[in-house]
Structure formats: C-alpha cells, structure tokens
Write a structure and sequence with these properties.
Elements: H1 2-26, E1 32-39, H2 43-55, E2 61-64, H3 69-73, H4 75-83, E3 87-90, H5 118-136, E4 143-144, E5 151-152, E6 155-156, E7 168-169, E8 189-190, H6 196-209, E9 212-217, E10 219-220, E11 227-228, H7 230-242, E12 247-249, H8 252-265
Parallel strand pairs: 1-2, 1-9, 1-12, 2-3, 4-7, 8-9, 10-11
Antiparallel strand pairs: 5-6
Helix pairs in contact: 6-7
Length: 271
C-alpha cells in the first residue's frame, strides 16, 4: 500500500512539476512578474518615481511622449534614468487619442487619432523611437497605446510596428500566464486613487497564480488628473522589495523578451 502511494505521488510530481517549473522559469525562476509602468513623461516621474525606485533598487518603464516639454527640458535626467536600468518606452510622438469615442472631449483636432491615417500614426511612432534611441542608445523597447486605442478606421496600426518593438502595453486589467499574454496588447491595471491594499492584493494574487501583473500609473503624488497617493505607491514598492526573492520586478522590455522567447518555444500553446 505504501509502495502504491509513493508511485502515485511520484506520478503526480511528474505531471505537476513541468508546468510549475515552466511558469517560474519565464518569471526569472520566481513566482510571478510585476512591471511598474508610468505614462506621459511628466515631472513627477523624475521628481518622485525615479528616486523612489532607485532607493529600493527596483526598475520601471516610463512611456515617454516625444513632444512632451518634460522630455526636452529634462533630457539629461531621462538619460541618467535609462543608464540606471529604467526603460524609456514609446508612448507616441504626439499622444493621439480617438476623439470620436465617448468621453473624449479632451482630444484636440490636431491629435485626434480618428483623423489620422495609419501611415501617419506609424511614422510618428517610429520617429519617437528615433528620439528615444538618441536619449538612451537602445534599440529594444516596448510601446504603450495612447488612451488604449488600438485602431484607426478599424485597422490595427500596431500590426505595422511589430518589428519595431518587443511588445505593446494596453489598458485592460488582467493577470495572465506567459502562455496567455498577447504581446500586441499586454494587460495592465490602471491605477487612479486605489489604495495600497488594493495594489498589494493584486500582487499577492499574481504570486498565487504565477502570472504577470502590470501596473499603469500616471501621477504619483500629484502631477496628473489620474493619480496614486505617494504613500500608497511607497507601500507597494516596499512590499515588492521585501519579497524580491519571490517576485521578479523588471521593466516591460525585459519581461516581454522572456515571454516572447517562451511563446516561441511553445508555439502550439493557445492564446
């Protein structure tokens, strides 16, 4: 009887271990991956976020709008942030959003994605890549859709950019395994006023499910209409640092590269 129990346990281990091992391998041999992303190239990124991340030796992804005055005015600081391992991601040159959608009264005629051609959108995003490469000297990076808008006239413009990026971040919340991730529209939780407890609960769920968790921030301690409390953000960083043996915290480009490699090794895995 004991022999049969041992055999069953061994068989169960063989069945379970590969999946668990695979999940942990893609997350750098940890339980899960967490990516901290910050949109729009605003002053608080450099004033509040970069110092907070550096203080606990964590790295994030900053999605820069090429036309932002904060990029031009503080370019040496962005360069130093990149040198310390933060990713400077592409958030388009002009941050165009689809003004034809409900609630888009803030969209100006000049930056209305619904009035763009696909060629114009692609050209501006490529131009922003050139600018970012001039700042950080890097060729591998990720893209973030302005306002989460994927299409122009029913055409997904990112289809013409897949060779220019490792992946693209969207705005739909969700925890996903490496097999489930769509690298053309990576899920992310938008944070606007949620508590530290809410964010920590998401991290713990990612740990339990061995999934990728992406946070999408704008203002941190002010600076934007979409904002997270500075202390709540600090609590999140402290938890991630205290559990770094179990949680892989890395810029989006590094996580996306791992996911891409995993999916190429497992092409039959449904997504």
């Amino acid at each position: 009887m004991n022999f049969l129990k041992i055999c069953r346990a061994a068989l169960l281990l063989l069945l379970v271990t590969p999946a668990t091992s695979s999940a942990q391998t893609v997350w750098n041999n940890k339980q899960c991956a967490v990516v901290l992303t910050y949109d729009d190239a605003i002053d608080v990124d450099l004033d509040n976020v970069v110092p907070a991340l550096d203080s606990v030796k964590l790295r994030g992804t900053f999605y820069l709008i090429g036309s932002s005055g904060v990029v031009a005015r503080r370019l040496p600081e962005w360069r130093r942030a990149a040198q310390r391992g933060h990713e400077l991601g592409n958030h388009a040159l002009m941050h165009p959003c689809d003004g034809s959608l409900p609630g888009r009264g803030f969209v100006t005629p000049d930056n209305d994605l619904s009035k763009y051609t696909v060629t114009r959108a692609v050209s501006e995003i490529k131009a922003n890549n050139t600018l970012l490469a001039a700042i950080d000297g890097k060729t591998a990076r990720t893209f973030a859709y302005p306002c989460g808008d994927l299409q122009i006239g029913g055409v997904r413009f990112y289809d013409q950019l897949q060779n220019d990026f490792v992946g693209a971040r969207g705005v739909t919340g969700g925890l996903q395994t490496a097999a489930q991730i769509d690298l053309t529209n990576i899920d992310a939780y938008s944070i606007n006023g949620q508590s530290a407890e809410y964010m920590l609960d998401l991290v713990k769920k990612a740990q339990q499910s061995h999934t990728l968790l992406v946070f999408l921030f704008h203002g941190v301690g002010g600076g934007h209409a979409l904002n997270v409390d500075l202390q709540a953000h600090r609590q999140l960083l402290r938890y991630l640092k205290a559990h770094e043996k179990d949680i892989w915290v890395a810029p989006m480009v590094e996580v996306a590269e791992k996911v891409k490699a995993y999916q190429q090794r497992n092409p039959s895995t449904p997504r």
